[in-house]
Structure formats: C-alpha cells, structure tokens
Amino acid sequence: MKEDRQPPFHHHHRRLAAFTRRSFTKSTAYVVILILLSFALGYLSAASYHPRQHSQSPTISQTTIASATAAVTATELDHYRFRTQCADPVHPKLVRQTILDRVFNGTSPYASFPPPHISPLLRESRIKGWGSNGAVFGNLIRKVKPETIIEVGTFLGASAINMARLTRELGLKTQILCVDDFRGWPGFLDRFRELKMVNGDVMLMYQFMQNVVHVNSTESVLFVPFQTGTTLEKLCEWGVFGDLVEVDAGHDFHSAWIDINRAYKVLRPGGVMFGHDYFTAADYRGVRRAVNLFAKVNGFRVKVDGQHWVIDSA
Ligand SMILES: C[S@@+](CC[C@H](N)C(=O)[O-])C[C@H]1O[C@@H](n2cnc3c(N)ncnc32)[C@H](O)[C@@H]1O
Fold first, then answer.
1. What are the φ/ψ torsions at residue 236 (nearest 5 degrees)?
2. Is 249 in contact with 255 (CB distance < 8 Å)?
3. Which residue's CA lies nearest to atom 5 of ligand 1?
4. Which residues does a 6 A CB cutoff place in the pocket of ligand 1?
5. Which H or E run includes 25?
6. How far is the CA of 162 from the centre of ligand 1 (A)?
7. I need a surface site. Which of 37, 51, 91, 243 has the fewest CB within 10 A?
8. pLDDT tens digits, one per residue of 30-78
9. Nearest CA to ligand 1 atom 25
C-alpha cells in the first residue's frame, strides 16, 4: 500500500513545488507590475494636484475630485456638520439683558462713553458701508417685523444704523445685535486713513460706538465684540435667536460657509437670513458659492434683492 501511495505523493509534491515556483514567479511579476503601476498613478495624481498652486480660474482634476470625495466619505461629511441644538429661546424682551449679563458684566458698554483718553481720537460720526442702505433692509423689516435682528459683520455700523432707523420708523421695538471683532481686515486702514491706530488697535469698536451714540440708537443697537464663530455658538448656547439675521463678515467661501451655517442655528424658525455681496467676484464668487451650497444642502430657494441674497426659512 505504502509503495502504491508513494509515487502519487511524490508526483503531488513535485506538482505542488512546481505550482508554488510558478505562482511565486507569477505573483512576483504581479507585485512588480503593481508597484510600477502605483508609482505611475501616484506620480500622475501628484502631478495633477497642486494645492499650493494659484491660478486665476480654478481647474479641478478628476483625481482631485475623486480624492476629495473619498476624504468627505472618510470624515463622514464633517464639513456639513454644525451644532444641531440650541438652548430654549429667551424671550425677545430679555435678549438685551442676556447680552449685557453674559458679555458686559451686567453694565451697558455705552455707560460713560467715550473714555477721556479715546475721545480726542474719534470723529463725531464716521460711517462707511457697502450696500448698507439697500432696499432689501426696508423690504425685509416691513415683511418680518423683527423683534430681534442679529447682524454678523458690522464694521462702522452703517447697515445696523440703517436698520435701527427703519425699525424705529415702523414703530417697532427691535433689538439689533451686532457681531464683529472690530478688527476689519489686514490693510483696511489704507482706505480709512482718518481712523487712528493706537498701539496696533484700529479702534473700530470705539468709532462704531460713537456712530451709534451720534444717532441716539444705543438702546436698539448692542454689540458682541468677538469673533463670529465663537459668538454665534454662544448665542445658540444662550438661546438668543434672530427673526432676521444678516451675514456680512468674511467674504471668502470658507468664512461665508461657516458663518451662514452658524447663523442659521440662531435664526428663529420661519425667520429670514440675508447678506450682501452675492455678486462679488472675490474668492471665485465665494459668498455666492457658500449661499448656494447652503441652500442646496438645506432645501431652500435663494432669492436676490439688489446685491443681496435672501433665504426665507418660512
Ligand atoms: C463688510 S464689513 C461689514 C459691513 C456692514 N455690514 C455694513 O454694511 O456697513 C465686514 C466686517 O466683518 C468683520 N469680520 C470679518 N470676519 C470676522 C470674524 N471672523 N469675526 C468677527 N468679525 C469679522 C470685520 O471686522 C468687518 O468689520
């Protein structure tokens, strides 16, 4: 029996050895081909993706789109993920006191304004805005009759002061909250040479306050002098909502995208959100791309009123 079984065993062994040799040779060849291919593909994709390269019109290669899609899937759509829940809304009549308590230790920032060392550096009034008196403000205020307006991006207060006037004319008791770090943007003083800089402080906040004092609107216009991101998060946490929310801070896609998404969290359900520069070319029409993407993701229609975009959540 043993004798009988030996030849087949040897035969099998020889075949196995030959198969292994052949497979080894084959798989070695496959591995070599694969390595060569990945080098070629890696080289090609590296050649078509230059994140630091600047060009006038963005050209996005298929490889870039594919890797971006893979990355989005891998991070489980993190770019679209913003806080989903805010605190219960505080009553509109308590919004002002909430901000005074939370931001200003319970005291009005306008008390004893201007401080003596700042007073000589301010103009009685210095207002400059961009589309800040557009028809959209009156149109929306008449339509929404807001109790609370949140403005994201205020600068010298041109649009806030315009809204204060419009609400007053309609007999509304609207609280306008202005969110701005009052730093402007690097180099903005080139166009505002009359604004004084003190030890690197551009004093935008003081001139804005002076402008509000000048038109006697300190009761209706209050401000939160911090970064838009952290402030909108806090408003959400404190239950401070706006019936009307204007977004007009950073005008590049990413700033606008984040501001719009966070602003939406503090928009009262059924309220209206709007902003300037829907047609600006800056950052490859960054504001428009951000607004359109936001509307698409959330199922809203974008309306246009002059240079402004409007999203009505009703
Ligand atoms: C175009 S101006 C606002 C103009 C104003 N809405 C008007 O019509 O008169 C933009 C403002 O947004 C502010 N800003 C930009 N990015 C900001 C950020 N991340 N946090 C706080 N303020 C910001 C700047 O300081 C600047 O005052």
1. -60, -45
2. yes
3. 154
4. 129-130, 132, 153-155, 158-159, 180-184, 227-228, 248-250
5. helix 2-48
6. 16
7. 51
8. 544 444 444 444 333 333 323 333 333 344 566 666 676 666 666 667 8
9. 184
Q: What is the reported pLDDT for 283?
A: 87
If you take atom 10 of ligand 1, which residue's CA is the nearest one? 249
Cα 290 from Cα 198, distance rounded (Å): 35
Q: Give residues with Cβ within 8 angstroms of 171, minimum separation 6.
A: none
Domain range list for the chain: 2-59, 88-312
Q: Which residue has the CA at smallest separation from atom 24 of ligand 1?
A: 184
- Please tell me the distance between residue 27's alpha carbon and the centre of ligand 1 in angstroms: 62
Residue 184 CA to ligand 1 center (angstroms) comes to 6
Output the CA 186–ligand 1 centroid distance in Å: 12
Rounded distance between C-alpha atoms, residue 23 and residue 88, angstroms: 68
Tell me what the pLDDT averaged over the chain comes to: 84
Cα Rg of the chain, angstroms: 30
CA distances from 190 to 129, 197, 285 (A): 16, 12, 24
- Give the homologous superfamily in CATH for domain 88-312: Vaccinia Virus protein VP39 (3.40.50.150)
Task: Give the alpha-carbon dihedral of 297, 303, 306, 307, to 10 degrees.
Answer: 0
Digit-coded pLDDT (tens) for 66-116: 676 666 666 667 888 887 799 999 999 999 999 999 999 999 999 999 999
- pLDDT at position 65 is 63
Q: Which of 248, 260, 307 to mutate to test the pocket of ligand 1 (most atoms within 8 A of CB)?
A: 248
pLDDT at 82: 85
Cα–Cα dist 217/15, whole Å: 95
Please state the rounded mean pLDDT for residues 139-160.
Answer: 98
Q: What type of residue is 255? A: S
